[in-house]
Amino acid sequence: MWTGREGDENKEATWEEYSDFYKNLYRSITVSEFDRPHKTVVYCNEQDIPAREVNGCSNIPQINFLSQYYILTHQAEVTMPSGHIDQPKVEDNRDGTVRVQYDPREEGIHELEVKYNGEHVKGSPYKFHVDSIASGSVTAYGPGLTQGITGDPCNFTISTKGAGAGGLSLAVDGPSKAEISYSDNKDGTVTATYLPTAPGDYKVSVRYGDKNIKGSPFLAKITGDGKKRNQVSVPSCTEMVLSGGTVSDADLRTLNGSIQTPSGLEEPCFLKRMPSGNIGISFTPRQVGEHAISIKRQGKHIHNSPFKLNVSQVEVGDAKKVKVTGTALEEGKTKVENIFAVDTRNAGHGGLSLSIEGPSKVEINCTDKADGTLAIGYKPTQPGFYIVNLKFADHHVTGSPYTVKVTGEGSNSQRETIQQENRAMPVTDVGGDCKLTFKMPGITSFDLAASITSPSHVTEDAEIQEVSDGVYAVNFVPKETGVHTVSVRYTEMHIPGSPFQYTVGPFTDSGSHLVKAGGAGLERGEVGVPSEFNVWTREAGGGALAVSIEGPSKATIELKDRKDGSSNVAYTVTEPGEYRIGVKYNDRHIPDSPHKVYISPAMGDAHKLEIAQFPQGSVQPDTPAQFLVRNNGAKGKLDAKVIAPSNTENDCFIQAIDQEETSVRFYPRENGIHSIHVKFNGVHIPGSPFRVKVGKEVADPACVQASGNGLKEAKTGQKADFIIGTCNAGSGTMAVTLDGPSKVAMDCTEIEEGYKVRYTPLLPGDYFMSIKYNNIHVVGSPFKIVCNGDNFCDEGAQETSSVVFETVAKYSKGSNKTASVLPNFKSDASKVTTKGMGLKKAFLGKQNQFTVGATDAGNNILYIGMYGPKGPCEEVQVKHMGRNIYQVNYYVRERGEYILIIRWGEDNIPGSPYRVEV
User: Which of 201, 438, 664, 671 has CA atoms 20 to 30 A from the CA of 654?
Assistant: First the structure.
């Protein structure tokens, strides 16, 4: 609205209309917030209106001009059970909080929407139940029935006036175990409290006389970060020697073993060669009675297998007999080590598992005294409630899980979060245009290369275009449906996030485990300088992407959706130190989140330093390598370290050559990509960390194929397995990690095409299998596994099980170390056409020519051979003209009849072999 002279009637118009008409009149703008919680008024200063024509209009107001432009900030509305919309009262408390007050007029479930600048606030919409206090029945009310924050007690009140407190039962069911307690207020009401430790939807059941009260079960939306978790495991097992022949170490690698309990639980067991030469097994006894131990070679039982084994009561781990002493499981202090003791001497054989969840990730120290007793200490950095899960032989010890109240001063970290809604990407069909986008500022595009591997393992180069400054797009046209592998390399090494999964055709899965993040901003940063990284959400479906940064200073975060299934994150902080960057999708952390990033002080003189004689290509393991650092006049301390693919760190040897040059020497011991961090006065020099390829047989995660039903589904108490194919992937470190409701027994056996991994889950639920090759996820990792069945152990916190092994270089049949393996081509040689005089007749001393057309014949390799009266043809040249059309030239020196063979892959094309007269 705007007002002219006094007495003029008000005229309705949009802000855009008036701002466009008067766009040249505005010079200064004042924003003022009155006692109107919904509206911010923007005034135009009348002194800035020039007395001249504007936009061809001479009738310019020469008097005071006022324009009002309302920005909606806080909005709320209630949807009543009848479907009608009601407006609650919204008050701005002027302290960063807003008060919403509502007087309900109907009984039943209401839905409250709270918006800020048109966007739902976190947790909105909220649901709450309204009942009549005078109804004479038991009623419940309070915030704990509708919403809460992880780690904070959730409270609500139950009114039992006229009904008495007897016969009242309460239960909470949700993503985390939440013990519920209540106290009688002696005034006809009961106060109930529960402590959620993970975000999500919780069902709060209030029953009276074995019946749900009105509105029960209530749905409470718990928001906030999931509790930060740390865990340690102390394995314990029994060993036995099997009666059988002796085996060699080579024979042992071809065997795998499993043990079946009297109840039918079957899980892998570890095999070892005993000093006597016999086979020995190592396992954790779980049940009393006769067990069957199966030892197989290539799926067939060895002699005397299955072996019988009787387990007595004293050998089975009994969590009830574990003794725990110390007050650290009742209360603790921040920034000090809180110690308690665990005694397992009378509890039989069983592994001890400890996990601690709370406001901070705690440092856990476990001292095994080798006599069945342990001293365990933990050091939290933030006050609050912590949940301690202590298990022995997969069952909770008495009192576990413990709720520990930690007091004291917390770290002065500050946290900032930004969120955006991502829409689901449309399905891409065969023959359509596919694009994968990423941002890598400050690189040379000539050193970028991309390739696409189809589901049938055909690999082709892909085109990379720079679409804007530092933003690149990989473009390709798929020829088949299924999951494709997109490899993007810079200086012949995978960029962060590569290799990527790209589904052509219908998506078969969705969820946060399919989101990827990568970029320099997740590795390093500098105070006051924007740090950036990419997030790829295409494969995960639609959802809410949230980025949080916690550290010594508040971060400024910008989140840009590129509308193609990828986003760019840029953040800036003002204080150096260690920051935690969390990336969540639909309230679940994506793989490898949160990231720990050290933000260094302002670069200072570090920008003067430069690298010289850095190793090109690859260096060899167990061989020293070096490069030079030029100071260029900078004064300070230089330090360097090398981080191997297994994440082990080693210092580099630094030696000053003169005042301007320093030699940095490092000694890699593993195959794979190493990172060399070079810092000057504690700050990364330009380009650091530097990446270097070590070894000829560099592990390539893009060549690893994981398959098998064990990556999709499982059943508790039964072995599940899958294959990791490593043919042509070089040699490196394979790490297989399973996160889920229970600890699992897991082992790995070498097979012809790679490795076979077996595991046995003990609890139903969703498990996530991560497969990393030299610390890089293979395509599809982590895999979501749905497990069904009965419970074989106590429920508790999420558990992590892993197996790590070194791979050896493997090759497909018919290949060797020096020959590459052909992909599995899909082609039809019968659709290849030829034309040209060179197919029938040739002339001495001249270039003879013909063409081969394979546009409709699929993909394969063209083989051409020509043999004459006295031997092979003198010269044959093949030139690819595009779209699988080839021009062939050949040169002959002898007269006679020649045989010309043209094959598309392994098959002759129509007419081959040809007879050519010279």
Answer: 671
Nearest-angstrom CA–CA distance, 630 and 609: 6
**Is the dihedral angle over the CA atoms 779, 782, 788, 792 positive or is it negative?**
positive
Query: Coil, helix or strand for 514?
Result: helix
Which distant-in-sequence residues (6+ apart) come within 8 Å of 298 by Cβ?
254
DSSP character at residue 249? H
CA distance 168 to 213: 10
Q: Dump the DSSP string for 294-315.
A: EEEETTEE-TTPSEEEEE-GGG
**Count of C-beta atoms within a 10 Å radius of residue 262:** 13
DSSP secondary structure string for all residues of 341-379? EEE-TTS-B--EEEEEEESSPPEEEEEE-SSSEEEEEEE
Question: What's the angle, vertex CA 91, arms to CA 86 and CA 93, rounded to 5?
Answer: 155
- pLDDT (tens digit per residue) in 883-894: 888 999 888 888
C-alpha–C-alpha distance, residues 285 and 287, integer Å: 6
> How far is residue 27 from each of residues 24, 30, 609, 862, measured CA to CA in Å?
8, 10, 46, 71
Least confident of 468-482, 544-558, 571-585, 840-854: 840-854
> In 89-169, which ranges are continuous DSSP H helix?
none
Termini Cα distance of the chain: 93
Per DSSP, 563 falls in state S
Report d(CA 64, CA 47) in Å as an integer: 8
- Cα separation, 782 vs 769, in Å, equals 5
Query: Which strand (E) or helix (H) includes residue 20?
Result: helix 15-21
DSSP assignment of 854-875, as one string? -TTSBS--EEEEEEETTEE-SE
Provide the token pair at 366: 């476990």
Per-residue DSSP letter, 604: G
Q: Residues 903, 908, 910, 916: is their CA dihedral positive or negative?
A: positive
Instruction: Find all residues with CB under 8 Å of 500, minimum gap 6, and list them.
Output: 436, 485, 486, 487, 488, 516, 536, 779
Q: What is the pLDDT of residue 30?
A: 39
751 vs 771: CA distance, rounded Å: 17
- The whole-angstrom distance between residue 101's C-alpha and the CA centroid of its chain comes to 41
Q: How many CB atoms lie within 10 A of CB 593?
A: 19
Of the candidates 400, 202, 361, the residue with the CA atom closest to the CA atom of residue 796? 400
CB–CB of 106/80 below 8 Å? yes
Q: What is the pLDDT of residues 707-728, one digit of tens each?
A: 999 999 999 988 999 999 998 8
- Characterize the bridge pairing of strands 211-212 and 200-208: antiparallel
Residues in the chain: 918
The one-letter code for the residue type at 214 is K
**Closest residue by Cα to residue 743 from 791, 800, 785, 793:** 800
Q: Which of 591, 646, 593 is nearest to 780 (CA)?
A: 591
Q: CA 589, CA 578: separation in Å to the nearest integer? A: 19
**Nearest-angstrom CA–CA distance, 217 and 206:** 7
